[in-house]
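sanity check this record:

:::
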Amino acid sequence: MNYYVYIIASRRDGAIYIGVTNDIVRRIYEHRTKAVPGFASRYNITRLVWFEIYDDPISAISREKELKKWKRSWKTQLIEAQNPQWEDLYESICN
């Protein structure tokens, strides 16, 4: 089973949310449909802009906690290294 650390954003330079899941398609769908109340739904944070894949939950959770401590500028650099236009990657993972 794979585990995913992901970053979703409301827009470029907007609010971002970092999460971890074992089913990224389902979890991003939940964010997009605002199925779970909370920070992401409150601030309309729905666009998948970055993710990493891990083989075990401990590594994924550790990475999520690490990223949450990072400065905003570091998170922006991480996103733009793989996704310079902050495109929504959701459709590309649904196939």
Strands lie at 3-9, 16-21, 47-54.
